[in-house]
């Protein structure tokens, strides 16, 4: 199967190579003109040199020698030389090439395993090697791209797995804290648990957590007010409140659905505030709902754009439900003691 896959890849690479190196066809008139001009130049050179040689020999030998005789002797000599070289190369190139004529054939003792025939053979070999080289280069590039994609996939998978493991550890700690504080009947049970929940929640985001902040709003007297937070300044905690539909938290309260905004625009009315705020690049809001009753809103802010993704939303949803549980517990406790709304 792997061999078949390799063959398919090589075939694809070969096709890609042919497509990539498919150059425009060279014009025929240029080829013809090139060789015609070369032929004329060779004739001119031979004509000139043969005349000079003929004059020198005529004067030396005191015998009339013309250009045609010089050209004939040189041509025949070169022709015999090339025939001799080609025949010798033919014998040396293969032991199957016998010595003789159509009548007599003798074994070839001149075969040379290390001998390769002249320029045409080398040119063919070069073209073959060049083609193989380009095919292997394409395959190598594909392998590199594939390994890079695989590495990126493994990196993302590792990040997700790390978040899941951290989430599991966070849940264990929260359950232990819940059991302990409830058993001790801690008077600050709700505040302590909300603080633990938000502190753990901010650690399970896939991207950098160092620029994140988190605010938990509770509906108090028809307004959203911060009851717990992480990395939020004291002035905002004390003064910031929203009515339904006001600000981003009020917008989440009004819509009743989780929303991520990864590109915050300055003119967006949801993010305008009379209080000075730190720059926010992206934000996530989740309503805390029980049977269509919204008890509050959980907001996470990032100083950079694209700070959140859908995986974060799914993970944070668990912590929002724990916050809902604590707020609901607090509301039930207040109602029982006659301190809350009836």
State the secondary-structure class. alpha+beta
Strand order of the largest sheet: 5-4-3-8-7-6
Largest sheet: 6 strands, antiparallel
Q: How many strands in all?
A: 8
Q: What's the total helix number?
A: 8
CATH class of the largest domain: Alpha Beta
What would you report as the Rg, rounded to the nearest angstrom? 44 Å
Low-confidence stretches: 16-22
CATH H level, superfamily name of the largest domain? GAF domain
Provide the CATH architecture of the largest domain.
2-Layer Sandwich
Order of helices and strands: HHHEEHHEEHEHEEEH
Q: How helical, in percent, are the residues?
A: 55-70%
Determine the CATH topology of the largest domain.
Beta-Lactamase
Shape: rod-shaped
* Share in β-strands: 5-15%
Report the mean per-residue pLDDT as an integer: 82
Distance between the termini: 73 Å
Give the tally of structural domains.
Answer: 2
Describe the structure in your own words.
- The protein has 342 residues and is α+β, with helices and mostly antiparallel strands.
- The chain has 2 domains: 93 residues, no CATH class; 150 residues, Beta-Lactamase.
- It is built from 8 helices and 8 strands, in the order αααββααββαβαβββα.
- Strands 5-4-3-8-7-6 form a 6-stranded antiparallel sheet.
- A hairpin with a 4-residue loop joins strand 1 and strand 2.
- Helix 1 packs across helix 4 and helix 4 runs antiparallel to helix 5.
- The longest helix is centred in the middle third of the chain and has 65 residues.
- It is rod-shaped, with a radius of gyration of 44 Å.
- The two termini are 73 Å apart.
């Amino acid at each position: 199967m792997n061999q078949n896959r390799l063959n398919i890849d090589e075939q694809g690479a070969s096709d890609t190579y042919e497509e990539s190196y498919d150059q425009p066809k060279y014009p025929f008139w240029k080829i013809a003109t090139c060789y015609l001009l070369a032929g004329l130049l060779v004739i001119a050179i031979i004509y000139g040199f043969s005349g000079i040689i003929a004059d020198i020999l005529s004067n030396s030998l005191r015998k009339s020698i013309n250009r045609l005789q010089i050209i004939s002797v040189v041509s025949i000599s070169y022709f015999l030389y090339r025939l001799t070289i080609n025949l010798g190369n033919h014998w040396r190139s293969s032991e199957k090439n016998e010595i003789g004529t159509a009548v007599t054939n003798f074994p070839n003792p001149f075969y040379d395993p290390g001998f390769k025939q002249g320029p045409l053979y080398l040119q063919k070999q070069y073209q073959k090697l060049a083609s193989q080289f380009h095919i292997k280069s394409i395959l190598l590039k594909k392998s590199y791209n594939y390994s890079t994609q695989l590495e990126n996939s493994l990196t993302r998978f590792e990040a997700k797995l790390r978040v899941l493991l951290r989430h599991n550890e966070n849940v264990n700690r929260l359950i232990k804290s819940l059991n302990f504080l409830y058993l001790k009947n801690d008077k600050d049970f709700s505040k302590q648990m909300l603080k633990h929940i938000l502190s753990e929640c901010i650690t399970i985001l896939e991207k950098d957590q160092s620029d994140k902040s988190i605010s938990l709003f509770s509906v108090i007297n028809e307004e959203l007010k911060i009851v717990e937070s992480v990395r939020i300044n004291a002035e905002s905690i004390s003064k910031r409140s929203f009515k339904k539909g006001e600000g981003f938290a009020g917008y989440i309260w009004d819509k009743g659905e989780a929303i991520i905004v990864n590109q915050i625009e300055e003119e967006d009315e949801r993010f305008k505030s009379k209080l000075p705020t730190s720059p926010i690049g992206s934000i996530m809001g989740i309503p805390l709902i029980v049977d269509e009753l919204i008890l509050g809103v959980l907001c996470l802010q990032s100083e950079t754009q694209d700070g959140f993704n859908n995986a974060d939303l799914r993970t944070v949803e668990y912590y929002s439900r724990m916050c809902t549980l604590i707020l609901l517990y607090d509301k039930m406790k207040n109602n029982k003691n006659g301190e809350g709304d009836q």
